[in-house]
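Section 5: illustrative case.
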């Protein structure tokens, strides 16, 4: 590696703004703030909700009498 052209790499603290969770990683930045993390994101926590709006799929299901649910 050439000397003097690479940014300084050091330990970095990542902070989630939503839940306050913090963890350490390596980066050229000293601190990183994120909106959501794996601790509070609905996909990773399993609390994901599927909201069906009154759109084309619902209209089709009502038209042909297709019931929702499995």
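Designed sequence:
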């Amino acid at each position: 590696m050439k000397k003097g052209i690479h940014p300084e790499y050091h330990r970095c603290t990542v902070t989630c703004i939503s839940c306050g969770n913090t963890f350490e990683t390596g980066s050229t930045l000293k601190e990183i703030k994120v909106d959501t993390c794996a601790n509070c994101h609905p996909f990773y926590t399993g609390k994901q909700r599927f909201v069906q709006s009154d759109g084309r799929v619902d209209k089709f299901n009502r038209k042909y009498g297709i019931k929702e649910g499995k």
